[in-house]
Amino acid sequence: MKFAIYSYNGAGASMKYLSHYLDDAPILSRHSALDLSNTILINYGASYLTIPWNSSWFNEPRKINNAVYKLRSFALFADHGIPFPRLTQDCRVAQDWLQQGKTIFARQTASGAEGEGIIICHPDNRNTSLPSAEFYSEALGHNHEYRVHVVCGQVISCGQKYQRQADASPWIRNMKNGWIFLLDVQAPAVVKEMGRQAVVALGLDFGAADIGYKIADNKAWVFEVNSAPTMSQKTAAHYATAFKKESV
User: Fold this and answer.
1) For 18-57, what is each residue's pLDDT tens digit?
2) Cβ distance 109 to 134 under 8 Å?
3) Are 71 and 135 in contact, with CB atoms under 8 Å apart?
4) Fewest beta carbons within 10 Å, which of 5, 26, 146, 179?
5) CB count, 10 Å around CB of 89?
6) Which letter, b or e, does each residue of 171-183 get, where b requires 16 or more Cβ atoms within 10 Å of its Cβ?
7) 3-state SS of 53-102?
8) Residue 229: helix, strand or coil by DSSP?
9) What are phi and psi of 105, to 5 degrees?
């Protein structure tokens, strides 16, 4: 059986790596002619696809919506008993948290990625009114942050965010803010299991869960699940192996 990749953001490096390890699978986009007969389709982040869905393909579009819209994600995490940061859509409640000395993230959008739309509100400004936002969440003060890659309910790889720059932001840990991933690390068991559960709870066949971990009490929280995770060459090889195994 041959593979094809439908990518919401075109043929970037991640998709080229994955295509290579899937025997040069074609990378499709909005402008591609979709002839998917005898093909296993890997849907990389496209929630808008309207083609009739085949149960042998990976990541149905409506399930990707569960990951894209964060409030929907958190509702599903709550339904499955998966811990996540405390949040509210009530500005007055978030203001109380700020008064109690908590750092608050004012989230301007519930569908942003890579820290988009986040305003960090520190308790040293507790007498300042919070900006309006779609929702607010409480910073956890976690020690480490991991990305847990999952395919069909199985953890295939874990990465750990590593501080590359001395002035890297401790609040939003992405490449723009001075962080990179260490690949194929041995994450704590609670981190791997929570990542696995988070991807499954959203109904995704594959995804990458961002997990915060606090060493002192061996606790973990899920921040989000990525339905179109960035892949290094090594990570793409793990995904390709898993896709082939699940498609036999």
Assistant:
1) 999 999 999 998 767 677 888 999 999 999 998 889 999 9
2) yes
3) yes
4) 26
5) 13
6) ebbbeebbbbbee
7) CCCCCECCHHHHHHHHCHHHHHHHHHHCCCCCCCEECCHHHHHHHHHCCC
8) coil
9) -100, 115
Cα–Cα dist 247/132, whole Å: 46
What average pLDDT does the segment 92-103 reach?
A: 93
Return the sign of the alpha-carbon dihedral for residues 118, 196, 189, 221: positive
pTM of the model: 0.91
Place of tokens 């986040």: 118
What is the rounded CA–CA span in Å between residue 223 and residue 172? Answer: 11
Alpha-carbon torsion angle 13, 18, 22, 25, nearest 10? -50
- For residue 41, the surrounding DSSP H or E stretch is strand 39-44
Task: Tell me the per-residue pLDDT of 161-183, one tens digit each, with 9 for 90 and over.
Answer: 887 777 767 666 666 765 777 89
Question: Are 2 and 221 contacting, i.e. CB atoms less than 8 angstroms apart?
Answer: no
Query: For position 77, what pLDDT does the model report?
Result: 98
Mean confidence (pLDDT) of the chain: 90
Q: Which of 132-141, 176-185, 194-203, 208-217 has the lowest mean pLDDT?
A: 176-185
185: left (phi over 0), alpha (psi -120 to 50) or beta: beta
202: nearest Cα among 48, 53, 62, 88 = 62
